[in-house]
Amino acid sequence: MLLPDQTYEACGPGPVSPPLHALLRAHRVPPEFFCANRTRRRHSGGGEEAGAAAAAGAVAGAGATRRRTRHQRRRNDASSSNEAVHLQRRLLSLSSELVTLRNHLHVGAGGAGGAGGAGSQPAVPPRAHHLPPPPAALPHHPAPPPPVNAYTDACNALTLTAARAHRPELARLVHDAVRHQADTGYPQAIILSGVSGSGKTHASMVLLRRLFDVAGGGPETDAFKHLAAAFTVLRALGTAATPANSHSSRIGHFIEVQVTDGALYRTKIHCYFLDQTRVVRPPPGERNYHIFYQMLAGLTPDERAQLHLEGYGPQDLRYLASPHQRRAEPEDAARFHAWKTCLVILGIPFLDVVRVLAAVLLLGNVQFIENTEGGAEPGGEAELAAAAALLVATIVRRANSLKRLGSTLGTLSSDSNESVHGPEAARRALSAGAARAARAGARSMAALNDAVRHATDGFVGILDMFGFEDAAPSRLEHLCANLCAETMQHFYNTHVFKSAAESCREEGVACPLEVEYVDNVPCIDLVSSLRGGLLAALDAECAAGGSAEQYVSRVRAAHRAHPRLADARPPHARRFAVRHYAAEVTYDAADFLEANRDAVPDDLLAAFDSATCEFGFATHLFGAELKALAAQGGAANAGGGFFRASPTVAAEGGSTLTQDFHTRLDNLLRTLVHARPHFVRCLRANATETPMLFERATVARQVRALQILETTQLMASGYPHRMRFRAFSARYRALWGRGARGERGDRGERAERGERGERAEREGGAECARVLRSVQAAAAPPAPASPAAVRWALGKRHVFLSEGMRQVTTHHFEYPHYKLINLPQIRHSFYPYHVRTSLPETAILGYYLPEIKSNKKKLTTIVLILQTWA
Ligand SMILES: Nc1ncnc2c1ncn2[C@@H]1O[C@H](COP(=O)(O)OP(=O)(O)OP(=O)(O)O)[C@@H](O)[C@H]1O
Questions:
Q1: Closest Cα partner for 211 from 164, 162, 152, 248?
Q2: Which UniProt keywords apply (predicted)?
Q3: In 138-276, which residue ranges form alpha helices assigned H by DSSP?
């Protein structure tokens, strides 16, 4: 039976913990034990609450009749305050009995499970001990703060106070990911996507902050300060002002926070670089945060003398005097100050960093050339770009290799390969991996290692990659960013649309709706196919020493009839257009070849050899290149050769920028397919970064590109979620109560012991059906708005659930102490919802619909957060 949840919610000094609550339900502890007064009010009332009580009663059938009689009797008893006191005493003694019982159950179930793997789970699966209670459920806050980019706050979320960074929808997501990771050991990946400027980086920082609150000991820990410092330093080097976003990330991040038993174990940042030439030569209309120039401008005369830089200084940086730069100067100076402080936290001496720059300047390769605006621009771009790229790589390495000794949180390191789940997890992983390898008849030491790695790397990852951009005209860095956005879109399509439809088909479940979505594979093929794709053709052109024009004609010839390739408008010998999932983008290939080579001359690097260079840090930065140079005969032989400016993933030399980018993207995907994804789709409210302005056309474009309509259609009418019978009943059977457990003794446990075969599956399915029928009945009228929203079906091995059913089931189980059955509220917050924009498509469904009211204008923003079940 499902007890009306508001009964629990209203009682006692604090909420009942979810596991205890589930246990109470399983044992049919009457709600009156928790709050006599509340019970009386509810029963003397009527309307909705009585309706909810009636709905709950219907679930229990004959048992409910008995209970109602008891209920009535207790209601009379409770009219006396003495009796209320008496009941409260009983509650206390009952609580301690229940704790004992719970312990007994956990121990007993573990024992009964025998060899059991998943089957050894107790009726209520153990939770992470460290997890704080889930964030306040939305039913209490029908109008949470704006969850999507309304351009009201440009602060670094990592430095915000918790209150300012309060984003309930993101907090719930983090809690769900950590909880799931703790329950299953399975890696979790929170994937942010959306166009440039939609708020991915901002949201990723809020998520990271929240992750530390939930599992990392909060923002006062060294681990958090260290990560925040690394972020600040990286953002200063890797953020630029572009037409789409004045704080656009030019470095993508995947932050792996490894958690074990619900607590942070270590963190790792993976970075994805685009073309580094922008460090010294941003495209027209764009601007970098000139940390390098601030470095020079901020040096004291003593420091200049110490670095032999007397000849250089602000007077050389006349470009700072151009009107655009003057406006930016105070902002850059403030960033520079914060940046310097963060270097200290990372343990990187500021002067070491300046020495790198000094070394490059003193080599005489960088001169400042007057530009058309009367400002100065640096020459010697390759050298400066190389120094910048390597400096960034060093900062990432430093951020990943800090050791935190003697900490309860373990070690912050990327170096170690040790298991984060201890020997037991490693053993399980090994046996799972071994079984798989044997079945496949594998050559598979590699497969085994892979299995171990993935089963033991229980991370919660936050992925913030490049958003879609359509700068006019676009360069190679934009092509890479857009390939990345296309790949993430494809990952989403496959996970959400394709696999949902395929599993329904495989298991013979009649899906009420086949969602038609736009597959972007042809576009990904056009760009990245190894046989003649745009990137492969670029490599070929670089190898042939061709020109931009030759490259474009090569591409045109190879893909003349390709539906995603178009001519630039107006036609241009160096330009071509690609029809991406979000829009058509025109690329100018003028700098494609040079950027793809990404080369720095070897004689420059030879100057950093320890024999000739007194700056140890510079030698350290170029360590790998100097080693390679030494192997080729040393500095004496330098001259005419090239090294790559950006850090590379290729073991051998000779790779190009796009090859590296592609390889990194592939590796990232390999990690993502092993994780349970959580998608956060971000929308920007307008194209001009104006605070509190909602532009319908801009939002509509993004809604269409991200296929939000198709997604919500699937959520509303399809079966987007599925779960194995055994996993489902292990987790949710408590919702069905004692009867279920009695029968489980005969049937469910047999399945748990690992018996295979159809019969066990059938019985597992029957048990799931009982649970689901109970839940469905409890969510019966007067809600949800559309009964069709709460649907489920049984396949051969999986239960299939509609989004409404998933929400009801999860909330019965996860957040029982909130008013989950308070149906009018839940309808507004959690059920498919008609979003009131003026888009022609009127059936957009969203999880949250906050309204921002400002200057009597009513604005609406949408954020769709998709949580999927594995
Ligand atoms: N929820 C929000 N409320 C207010 N301002 C926001 C919000 N989200 C983002 N912003 C602001 O909007 C701007 C763009 O956000 P952000 O840089 O996170 O976008 P992005 O999607 O990561 O873009 P890119 O792909 O170009 O890196 C930033 O100045 C940021 O502070």
A1: 162
A2: Actin-binding, ATP-binding, Motor protein, Myosin, Nucleotide-binding
A3: 168-184, 200-215, 222-238
Whole-angstrom distance, CA of residue 515 vs CA of residue 381: 50
> Is it the case that residue 458 has pLDDT exceeding 50?
yes
Q: What is the ipTM of this complex?
A: 0.99
* Cβ proximity of 778 and 787 under 8 Å: no
**Contact yes or no for 479/542 (Cβ under 8 A):** no
pLDDT (tens digit per residue) in 657-669: 899 889 889 999 9
């259609």: which residue's tokens? 713
> Could you tell me if 259 and 265 are in contact, meaning their C-beta atoms sit under 8 angstroms apart?
yes
In the chain, domain spans: 5-120, 291-379, 422-456
408 annotated to a ligand binding site: no
**Residue list, ligand 1 pocket, CB within 6 Å:** 148-154, 194, 196-202, 245, 247-249, 466-467, 682
**DSSP-H helix ranges across 529-571:** 534-543, 548-558
857 is in an annotated binding site: no
pLDDT attached to residue 616: 66
Average pLDDT rounded to a whole number, residues 678-699: 80
Residue 43 has pLDDT above 60, yes or no: no
> What are the φ/ψ torsions at residue 178 (nearest 5 degrees)?
-65, -40
Least confident of 52-56, 183-187, 729-733: 52-56
- Residue in the block written with tokens 């295979």: 756
Cα of 178 from ligand 1 centre, angstroms: 25
Is residue 91 within a helix (H) or strand (E), and if so which, with residue range? helix 81-112
Cα–Cα distance for residue pair 352/365, rounded to 1 Å:
20
Which amino acid would we find at residue 859? Answer: L
Residue 198 among known ligand-binding residues: yes
Report the candidate in 707, 666, 682, 763 with the shortest Cα–Cα distance to residue 200.
682
Of 824, 823, 847, which is closest to residue 835 (Cα–Cα)?
847
Choosing from 169, 202, 254, 683 the residue with most ligand 1 atoms within 8 A of its CB, the one to mutate for a pocket test is 202
197 is in an annotated binding site: yes
